């Protein structure tokens, strides 16, 4: 301890004769505090009063029963720019403190009324941010030390030296500034902590929402395989409520017998995406009722400090997909069946078509054989032979074309777009059906566009559409009639129209809205499955076109196909 004042606490330690000495603290001094503030981006400097509290009017209450001391110390403080309020006893001083809310209180320990210790206790209880400096004589230094233990800012001994007073007041103001700095720092820490907590909460809520809103099942399991996450889609896939699963059921319990072992084996291999990773692995699960659920699984192990802590698994229910695939396969099979019915009807017509040219070829061949049997051919016979051979070649070409068209029609294929001449499409479709049309006493008329427009499309599929519509017209004209096929170029709309018009029985108004539905038919049993018009609609739709129908019972029907022109 110094003879003239001592800073005696675990926060500051100095003497009044060491006016230039800077503070040290449990935080490691100003530099230590700065190092602690830097990581959060807070710039800190030692709180010099002149810098940190610029423009502040410091209010000081001075309590002493000696008027001379009050005048002397008060004058020094006022000369230093402080606002000084004085009181001659403890009661008046305490009242002054309560009324004026000073920054610093300088009080003698012994004076009339309540003593300096009681003033110190009351101030630190009600206003701990107010700094209290105690004054005492040197012979009562133990009282000053006791005041320091009660959180006095400093003490000075009488008689009061100006430099001791200046240093004590400066330390008090520095403590206030430091406390404010630490308060700001604490507020900043709390603000940053709240921001971080809010961001973490938002991130957690977003992750939880993503997991819950996923259409795929998501479940997570700890290192023992126990369920820790079980989202809403998992409840729908397996039928369990998450409350009965989380913390109670294990991953292996969700698999069909033998599937859990396969899953674990594949997870250990690198076959499906890497070790401890699995991508699109097909497996069978078991739901709550014991039913088998085909699923596609993707999984990844979770690690913390290179130690595996769990597993997250994504489950994609395959039941609906497999159902749709089966329906597509069934529909394709039925479409092919309907096509085979049409093919059968075409084949019967083709037989007649081929019989006629074959009969002609046979007759010409027999005639040529007889002529050859008579010996050398005369020059006129050579001319006849050449004519016969030309006719035979023409008829054979006709047979080949008919068979080729039939094979093209029967072939299943995907959409293969190429330039299609609309008039040729109509002519070829008529060729395949003309014999059967003639047998039914149906006259064929054509009104074709002179521009012979070209569209992008699949010739075979578009041909199938027209044949379906021709057969539909034939069924509507069992006793004969007129079938008209038309083509028209409409430049303004950049489309081509194809119309198939008949003079048949027509379609009832209530049936028109169902006419393109699969399996809807007004034909007699055995005449078709009701897929012809549905197939036509689908093909035209894939060509980005449209098909419509107009009909009047007893007068006939018109189907109109609209197809876009190529770019």
TrEMBL record:
Alphabetic keyword roster: ATP-binding, Kinase, Nucleotide-binding, Phosphoprotein, Transferase, Two-component regulatory system
Lineage: Bacteria, Pseudomonadati, Thermodesulfobacteriota, Syntrophobacteria, Syntrophobacterales
Modification sites for 4-aspartylphosphate: 108
Gene3D superfamilies: 1.10.287.130, 3.40.50.2300, Histidine kinase-like ATPase, C-terminal domain, PAS domain
GO molecular function, one term: phosphorelay sensor kinase activity
Classification via InterPro entries: CheY-like_superfamily (IPR011006), HATPase_C_sf (IPR036890), HATPase_dom (IPR003594), His_kinase_dom (IPR005467), HisK_dim/P_dom (IPR003661), HisK_dim/P_sf (IPR036097), PAS (IPR000014), PAS-like_dom_sf (IPR035965)
Superkingdom in the source lineage: Bacteria
Residue ranges annotated for the PAS domain, each copy included: 203-274
Enzyme's top EC category: transferase
Any one GO BP annotation for this protein: regulation of DNA-templated transcription
Record protein name field: histidine kinase
Domain Response regulatory: 59-173
Domain Histidine kinase: start-end pairs: 349-567
SUPFAM superfamilies: ATPase domain of HSP90 chaperone/DNA topoisomerase II/histidine kinase (SSF55874), CheY-like (SSF52172), Homodimeric domain of signal transducing histidine kinase (SSF47384), PYP-like sensor domain (PAS domain) (SSF55785)
EC number(s) given by UniProt: 2.7.13.3
Enzymatic reactions: ATP + protein L-histidine = ADP + protein N-phospho-L-histidine
